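WP5 quarterly update. Target: NitT/TauT family transport system ATP-binding protein. Source organism: Mycoplana dimorpha. Length: 276 aa.
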Amino acid sequence: MMVAEMNAMQMSKIAVPVIQASRVWKQFGNGAVTALKDVSIDLRENEFTAFVGPSGCGKTTMLRIIAGLEHPTRGRVSMNGATITGPSPERGMLFQAYTSFPWLTARRNVEYGMKLLGVPKAEREASAMEFLRLVRLEKVADKYPGGFSGGMKQRVALARTLAQNPSVLLMDEPFGALDAQVRWEMQELMIELMERERKTVVAVTHDIEEAIYLADRIVFFSCQPGRVKADIQVEFKRGRRFPKKEDLLAQPGYTELEQHLFAMMREEIQAAAAAA
Ligand SMILES: Nc1ncnc2c1ncn2[C@@H]1O[C@H](COP(=O)(O)OP(=O)(O)OP(=O)(O)O)[C@@H](O)[C@H]1O
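Structure tokens (predicted):
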């Protein structure tokens, strides 16, 4: 096979959309609120996409539609060509609120989803420990999360979601409730997981710095109604992910992208204030 052909094949494999949202509208309250207006987004395999934008511009609604927790009023969202009609273990969801069960140990929390999927006991026990090791909680595997810090609880939730082996991971402000240092540690852990697990990830975040650090691509939503204002490939990373956050900050192009995103955010906030 010729090199050029191989490259074309590899390219098409890399570019294949896992999730395709086409011309999605979402209205609430019998049309009183248009949360999304004609939004089309393709999410590609092993790509980390951040949904960014001011409050109330439809980021969470779009994420919930991809999860199958909401249905579009118009338009279609599909995964690998099949229309999404409801939640599926193929699409794991991680919320801001810690979603671990306090009455189960960390290990049982991680096993829980696998149990629902019918994974045999021995396999789920081994797998739970593997994922707890991955999020560095193996030493507290048999403790109850009630006594854990926020970061630890969120790592239990992350391990539980990953243990179900979703090909798409959807995160709604996953680190929003954590303090700055823990948030930073979680972001670096996410980079490590992306390299190891090769998932397609979408994260809603208000934090521009977090979006630039984690994402290969940033979809910026504008408000009233929610639309895609900009779809930005984070070109300056040139496909690399940075295990240490400070290494990214030193890259040429970082500051320009940050300034651009802040300027768009200001524009949107001012437009919303003028419309109010
Ligand atoms: N279940 C619902 N019923 C009525 N209106 C809703 C519902 N869910 C969302 N909305 C409205 O849809 C719009 C978009 O909300 P959404 O939560 O998707 O925005 P967001 O960008 O994620 O905001 P935030 O960043 O504050 O979470 C808002 O005006 C919101 O009030």
